[in-house]
């Protein structure tokens, strides 16, 4: 095998409850992750030295060296699998910088992006998850799903979810997953903003706003109402129960999002929410036709850079055959 391509979905958060900051700097959260049909594709192949190339949506702002999450994932997988440096050559800069035996992957990684960068859609985490699955295959490393999930959790809070996709409740910092019972398929419009938001900045803004309001932060809890609505499969029940406690923080940093959400609601969305740390807004609609109408309304009102129609829940990271690979 000389190359493996994996397709991996974006996520939206149907609920995001934010608890107190932990000593490690992360916040304790409860979130309902929902994978949607907006995909990146990651191809890995053997190479003498580590190399990342990124094309597509937002490619210019994705690091193409060791700072790339997909490259970090490949390195972490090589370490976890105990692959000898001889078989997985080191990235030149790593070999010079660390004598500690960290194995960096000698692998070429090509990322074809459709998921916007720093958009609250976990695009970087998705690419890392795809790299884990692809390298596991390329190197015949033989890690189980559970072992891959453990490696994933060490790379970022959303990486483990991108492996499994579907709809799951995430706890801890988001990496501890429990599948949710969900009926039916949901139609969404994602409204992309110009530029991104930094996740740490949004969490910091959330802490600031809460402190200024004298808000007592209690442990985050799953929404029983939302879970029941998801089991019913009725988007009209789910829509009003979408919620994101990072939304006020995202809006404080990007006030124009308030209007984006308002236009979506005005033009028939059953629910409207900032996804994760934003700035992407997710709108739940009844069906594909309503989704198209809403895209026209949002773009016509000039409240987003662009908008796309997706469905969820979508499958997690999956190896695709060469015939399915798009250019
Ligand atoms: O884990 P990930 O790399 O996605 O997180 C990026 C940053 O977002 C963290 O360094 C932290 O500042 C913030 N974060 C947080 N609480 C979480 C997840 C992320 O504070 N549960």
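^ Assign residues to that structure.
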């Amino acid at each position: 095998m000389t190359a493996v391509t994996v397709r991996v979905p974006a996520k939206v958060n149907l609920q995001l409850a934010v608890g107190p900051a932990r000593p490690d700097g992360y916040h304790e959260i409860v979130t309902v992750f929902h994978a949607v049909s907006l995909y990146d594709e990651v191809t890995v192949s053997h190479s003498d030295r580590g190399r990342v190339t990124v094309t597509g949506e937002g490619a210019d702002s994705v690091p193409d060296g060791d700072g790339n999450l997909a490259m970090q994932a490949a390195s972490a997988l090589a370490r976890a699998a105990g692959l000898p440096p001889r078989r997985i050559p080191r990235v030149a800069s790593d070999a010079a910088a660390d004598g500690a035996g960290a194995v960096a992957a000698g692998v070429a990684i090509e990322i074809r992006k459709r998921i916007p960068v720093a958009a609250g859609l976990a695009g970087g985490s998705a690419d890392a998850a795809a790299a884990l699955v692809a390298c596991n295959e390329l190197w015949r490393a033989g890690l189980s799903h559970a072992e891959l999930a453990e490696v994933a959790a060490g790379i970022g809070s959303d990486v483990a979810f991108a492996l499994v996709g579907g709809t799951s409740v995430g706890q801890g910092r988001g990496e501890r997953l429990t599948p949710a019972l969900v009926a039916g398929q949901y139609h969404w419009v994602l409204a992309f903003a110009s530029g991104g938001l930094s996740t740490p900045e949004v969490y910091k803004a959330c802490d600031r706003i809460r402190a200024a309001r004298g808000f007592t932060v209690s442990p985050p809890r799953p929404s029983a109402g939302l879970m029941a609505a998801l089991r019913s499969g009725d988007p009209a029940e789910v829509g009003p129960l979408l919620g994101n406690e990072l939304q006020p923080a995202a809006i404080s940093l990007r006030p124009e999002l308030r209007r984006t959400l308002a236009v979506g609601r005005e033009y028939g969305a059953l629910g409207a929410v900032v996804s994760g740390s934003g700035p992407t807004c997710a709108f739940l609609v009844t069906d594909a036709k309503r989704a198209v109408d809403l895209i026209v309304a949002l773009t016509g009102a000039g409240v987003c850079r662009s908008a796309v129609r997706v469905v969820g829940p979508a499958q997690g990271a999956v190896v695709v055959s060469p015939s399915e690979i798009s250019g």
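Residues 25-27, 29, 156-158, 173-174, 199-200, 203 surround cytidine-5'-monophosphate (CB under 6 Å).
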